[in-house]
Every structure is written in C-alpha cells, then in structure tokens.
Amino acid sequence: MKPKVVVTREVFDDSIAVLAGHCEVIDNQADVPYTPDALATKLAGCEGLMCALTDKVDAALIARVPHLKAVANIAVGYNNIDVPACTARGIQVTNTPGVLDDSTADLAFALMLATARRVTEVEAYIRKGEWTGWKLKQWLGVDVHHATLGIIGMGRIGQAIAKRAAGFDMKVIYHNRTRVAPEIEARANAAYVSMDALLAQADFVVLQMPYSPETHHLIGAAQLKKMKPSAILINSTRGGVVDDAALIDALKHGTIRAAGLDVFENEPKLNPAFLELKNVVLVPHIGSSTEATRRAMAMTAAKNLVAALRGERPPNLVNPAAREQR
Asked: Would the pLDDT of 52 be above 80?
C-alpha cells in the first residue's frame, strides 16, 4: 500500500506526478490555506507532509498526527517547523537549499537598485501624470557602483550577492556568526569585520541569515543608529530579523536613507506605517519567485519526501538525528 501524503498548497503538476508515483497524494491545487485543525484532519493516517513556509508545523500539530514520518518544506528556511519536536518523534524534516540561491541574490540586488535610484517613487510620479520635464536636480539617488556593501550572513546566498557586487565594483565587507574559510573570502572578494564595523562602514547593509530566536530583532533601534544616515538597509531573508517598528521610526526620522524589504514581521499583515513612507521599497516575499526556481523548489521537496518515505536518507535532511530516533 502506498503511503499517504498531504501537499498543503498549490504546486506544479510535475512535482505532484513525482509524489503520485510513490504515494497516495492529497493535494490542494485549489490553494486554499489550511487552518491548523483542517491540516491535522487532512493528515490523519498520513505519513508525509509537503508544506510551505506559511504552514506552521508545531508541537501541537505533531502530537495529533502519530503516523507522520517526514515533513518536506518548500523553502530553504524552516522556522515554520518545530524541528526539535519532529526529531523527538523521529519525523524527518527536509528543506530546499541551493536551488534558490541565485534568484534570491538577484532580488536582493533589485531591491538595492530600486532603493538607490528611487525607482518605485519615480514610477508613481509618472503614473500620476506629474512629470513635466527634465531638471538637473530631479529625483537624485545614490550610486551602487563603487559603494561599500555590507553582507550580514555569508552563506550560499550571501556569497551569491557578493559575486554580483563584483560587477558593480563594490567593496564587500561581511559579518557572519562564524568567519568563512579563506578561499570563500577570496572568491567573494570580501573582508570579515565586526558587526559594529559593518554597520558603521556600509553604504548598503544586506541581511541574509536564517531566522531563529538568536537572530530575532538582530537589527533594531540600536543597530540602525550605528548605520550611516546615507545608508540603505535590504532585508531579503526573513521577517523578524528586523524590528519593523524601529525601522519605520528610523526611516521617518532620517536615521538611515531608505530600505528595501522582501519580508516583514507578521506577514502578510505588514505594519501599515510602511505604506505611508516613500523611502522604502516593498515587495511581497518574492525572493525565489521565478518560475524555474519555484519549480525546482517544489521538485526538490517532492524528491526529499519520496526518499524519506522509501526509507532512504533524503538529500536535504535537516535533522539527521530523527532517523536514529525512528
């Protein structure tokens, strides 16, 4: 008998087909988000779950689904999943690293360029019919080329951002919980500095680390005050890494010049005060949102889940101890 699996959101047909070759699939191609109770009901008797970062897989849910053996997250981050609770129950958790690095790095650069050159402001200006002619001092922005880029979080995506910075002749500095290997620094042409030094020196501060209790509000009022008044903050990683209320205050009072944000605290219910600001570029968590990348993410998740349910070690296993526990 094939194991039963639940797919919580709409995905591409080819990833459903991969699952269907090995599992009985309960899909959600209607893409109606499940409540916790609805998800627990769907998972009754199921061994596998393929979920999105919007799905909360916590201890309460895990306690209600005793047959669950594997959770495949369609994301590189997995702060939506209580991994220790899964491990204690022998539930394997997987993610989708690698396939989204370049697309997310592209989006970080898009936010840098859009904020530096005030793209969303000037587009709104044109759409309102307010442009009456060219002026020398009209809509002055700041240069990206030759600027100092500070990357906080030098993992795969951080390194991909640094690689792109070379094309803009940027000076790259970075801070990471652990200093990366010399060969990675050489490839990225990046110099390791303290957090305080990075905040003080960078023209653009790009955040690219996982969200965790340790990184909650890593950037708050104190850190924003250490940045240059001319600096721009880019958050293309996870909401909660930045104290959004503190950032709004900093943008209102000129503590920093601008911000480009792909993620927010409590998304999709972002702080409405952001909408009142002109010096912030807002996009709805689209860092990996290209068709090729999202297809690759869903396919990776499907293959992870199939491997786990076949008794194999999934390619992207987050909690190896779960295999021993089971």
From this structure: yes
Q: Which domains does the chain have, with CATH numbers?
A: 4-99+291-320 (3.40.50.720), 101-282 (3.40.50.720)
Identify the active-site residue in 118, 175, 285, 294.
285
Residue 127 a catalytic site member: no
**Overall pTM > 0.85:** yes
Look at residue 37 in the predicted model and tell me its pLDDT: 96
**Is residue 267 annotated as part of the catalytic site, yes or no?**
yes
Answer yes or no: is pLDDT of 76 > 80.
yes
CA–CA distance from 1 to each of 20, 50, 183 (Å)? 13, 19, 50
Q: Residue 208 corresponds to which tokens in the numbers above?
A: 């690219």
Active-site residue, selected from the candidate residues 238, 257, 265, 294: 238
In 3D, which of 80, 94, 89 has the Cα closest to residue 239? Answer: 80
How far, in whole angstroms, is CA 63 from its chain's centroid? Answer: 28
Concerning whether 285 is annotated as a catalytic residue, the answer is yes
pLDDT, tens digit (0-9, with 9 covering 90-100), for 182-211:
999 999 999 999 999 999 999 999 999 999
